[in-house]
Structures are given as structure tokens and as C-alpha cells.
Amino acid sequence: MSSIKTTAVGSWPIPFGQRNTLKRFYAGELSEALAYDALIAAARIAMDEQIACGLNEISGGEVFAPDFVHHIAPRLSGVRAVKLRNPALGYAGVGQYEVIGPLGAPSGTGHAAAFRREKALEPRLNKAAVPSPYTITMTFADQTRLATHREQLVAIVANELSDLVTAGATEVQLDAPVEAIAAIQSSAASADSLAKTLAEWIAAAFAEVPTSVRRSVHFCLGDVSRQPATEQQNLRALLPLIQALEGKVDRALLECSYVGQWREHALLGDIPASIEVVAGIADVKSAPQSSDELRRKIDALVTTVGTERLLLSTSCGCGRMPHDNAIRLNRNLVKAAT
Hints:
- The protein has a single domain (about 15-335), classed as TIM Barrel (Alpha-Beta Barrel), CATH 3.20.20.210.
- β7, α10 and β8 (about 310-315) form a beta-alpha-beta unit.
- The protein has helices at about 20-25, 35-55, 110-120, 135, 145-165, 175-185, 190-205, 240-245, 260, 290-305, 325-335, and strands at about 75-85, 95-105, 125-130, 170-175, 215-220, 250-255, 275-280, 310-315.
- Helix content is about 40%, strand content about 15%.
- The chain is an alpha/beta fold.
């Protein structure tokens, strides 16, 4: 087997020495200026560790974002908090916000600003991820009026993607767990129409991204307190959505670590040929798998997908993993891929 590229999904564990300062930053007790040194130090360590693991493509570690999407709503105009985020309560502790006016992000979502800091530290950094417009709505209290907010949410994300491109990103990724969860929980009768709607949200966010920049989407079943948002686990429910994105995205990063997902890994061969497949086989929610175990999965993927458009990754970001486990898992993945 020839070597297959490995790529980072997004988040990385917060380095121990920066945790106290960054916790204060996440809690709003410190401004970005006062937390600047800690943000720089944490990002440098996160990138160095990914490079040392041997990953072909790294991320900035998302050290500025404490908990995936949950820092975005407080940065938006036009919303009011009705329940604050409580990470200790898992999914029950997700913050809830009421829309009270036109939605906007006067200072952006923070992703482009972080990329600029991190790119200045590490020239090898070329990619960054932003939660999709639809995924941002997981923090909205009223889920019945999402369509009315679509244009404004798409504009918020599209503006952030454009800012990332201006900052030098050659790959921009939308994180779309809410789309994946909606697809897997939909009925057979509504699957095609839902896939079309979700694909429209994603495509609209990418509409102004130049063709010279890779457009990637990451689909997983959520990772709050290292738990999925649903016990339904398969790949077949995602296929209509990915097929509807043909010509609109260049890469699909797919969580493939659960038994139900891996059982259907052969379906990855049905993804349109124009879309690269990033198989998330290294499970971030369990003890690190051995390189031998991962290599067996890679051998099966090569048979199904081939090597030309196959890449490998962890199932989700590593930010919620114990630090040593994240390093061990990524090292094992790289070893298995070479």
C-alpha cells in the first residue's frame, strides 16, 4: 500500500500550561488582547504536536474556541441569551439564544482572526474550519423559524470564509454535524427533500469562495462531552446530501468510527468521483486504536475508494480528548497510513 495523506479535522487539546488563562478568556473575563500571549503559545504547541505526529495537513488547533460552535452566538448581534452554556451538562447544557433582530457578526466569528495569528506562526498552516450556517442554529431556541434566518446566517459564514481566503487559507472547511444528524434522523420519505435543502445552505456559504481554494465539509454525529447526539449510526443517510453537493464541494470528511458507520464503509465508493473522501476512522471518543487496527481499515478503504482521492483523519476534532491520547491516536494513524 502506498502512503495515504493524513489531515487534521480541527480542534486540538488545550496545552496544560495555558489552560487557566484561556479558561478566563473563554469565560469573558479576559479580552483577546490580554489573552493574546496564551492564544499564541497554545496554537504554537498545538501545531507543533500535529507536525510531530506526522500529519500531512495541520490545523491551528481552534484554541481560541472553547467548545466548537458555542462561542459564536455571544458574538452575534440580534440575539439574546435565554440559557447560558453549561459544559458540565453535556447536550442538556448547550446554550440557547432567542433571535430579537437582524443577525450579524460585527467582529466576525473569530476564525479568521485566529487563522491570521496562527498563519504568522506557522507557514505550513493552510486550512481552517468554520461551523456551517445550519449548525450555528443548534444554539437557537426556536427551531421552527430557521428558514427565515438563512440569508443572514449564510452571509455571516460566507463573510468569514472570504476573510479566511484573504488571510491566505487555501482550504476552507465547514463543520456540519447538525446537517449529518438531521439527515440520519430523517424519514425515508423526506430524505431527498431534506438533502436538497441542506445542500443549498452549504453551497450558499461557499458561493463566493474562489475555485482555487478547496471547499471541504465535515460530517459527524456531534461531540459534546465525547458523546454523539444520536444513537443512530450509518453512512447511507448521508449519501443523498453528499451527492447533492457534487460540483459544490471538493472534499467530504466523514466520521467512520462507529460500528454502524464502518459496517457501511463500502458506500464511500458511491460518493461522486469529483469529491475527495476523508475517512475519519480514528475514533476520538474511545481509547486510541492501534496502528494495526487502523491499517486493516485502511486496506479495506483502498479496496473500496482507491488511493487517488482517499485521505485519512480522526473521526472528529481532538479537542475533547485527553492530551496524551490525542497524540497517540494521531501517531498511530500516521503510522498506519505509511
